Amino acid sequence: MKRITIKDLSKFLSLSTSTISRALLHDKNVNEETRKRILDAAEKLGYKPNLTALNLQSGQSKTIGFVVPEMITPFSAKVLKGIQNILYPLGYRIIITQSDEDSCIERKNLQLLEEFNVDAIIINLCHETYNNDIYQHIMKQGTPLIFFDRIPHESLDVSKVIVNDYIKASLMVEYLIKTGRKRIVHMMGPATIRNAMERVNGYKRILMKYNIFDENLIVQADGMTFEHGKKAIKQLISKNIEFDSIFAFSDTLALGAMNYLHEQKIRIPDDVAVASFSGTELSSMVFPQLTSVQQPLEKMGEIAAELALEKIKNNSSPSKCIMMDAELIYRAST
């Protein structure tokens, strides 16, 4: 069956397409009687509006871009849920892209969203500086960028939603020390993102405070997956470096390490305690359940969406940095 268009409505009602478009957009300059005629005819003929075309006539696409390193774990999905909580009731649609921790793919995703003429982009980047030029280009074109969790270099004036990675990492490491642990491994995230450096610096500060810092206990994983966590801790054990606990950059790295410890019959937490940063549902789906710094992911998404709406309404409004609290959740792994 042929799709009914505005031109078909125009012919049926003997009205101009511009009048019909304005009525469908609830333009106050279209009188109520005419608007009712148009809406009744649209229902009778089975007209389904082309939302993209109508929104572009209003100056907005009513779409938001969402750029994240991965959608495999619950982390990005929880943030997305928060974004949807705010934007879906307002009629917005969300275009989701995944960079796979690759700055070149992230760049292509941003260019794609620019072609789609999105009203704003909410992004969790995979490199602090690599794509700064395209961030600046997109903002100069009038499209707001809102960053969450991982943020760009401070030279970029943008709105962002974060937690205090440095303080929360410090508190988690100090907790491990107070439970009697002295040989604490830190499984680092990529050195090219700021929160990875904030967490390792928090780790270092506390170990230096207690005079037990050992550079050999900092492990740089090759990536961010479960397998990378497993490989990193396997290499540490193969070097015969003694440790009694692990503080991982993310749940995925921690769980990968835990899997390998289980395979080697190393008891958790008796022999090795394990803690992480992120606090996704994964932390409570494993045995033993994982101690973690739990970020308010859904709320982060809601705040990011609200910041996007502020910028859509007035792109010259001041950028904001919203610092959210994260909670240390102690579970059986420690």
TrEMBL record:
Q: Does the keyword ATP-binding apply?
A: no
InterPro entries in the record: HTH_LacI, Lambda_DNA-bd_dom_sf, Peripla_BP/Lac1_sug-bd_dom, Peripla_BP_I
Q: Enumerate the PROSITE patterns for this protein.
A: HTH_LACI_2 (PS50932)
- Which organism was this protein described from? Chryseobacterium pennae
Give every HTH lacI-type domain span: 4-58
Q: Which Pfam families match?
A: LacI, Peripla_BP_1
Q: What is this protein's record name?
A: LacI family transcriptional regulator
Sorted keywords for this record are: DNA-binding, Transcription, Transcription regulation
Drop me one GO molecular function for this one: DNA-binding transcription factor activity
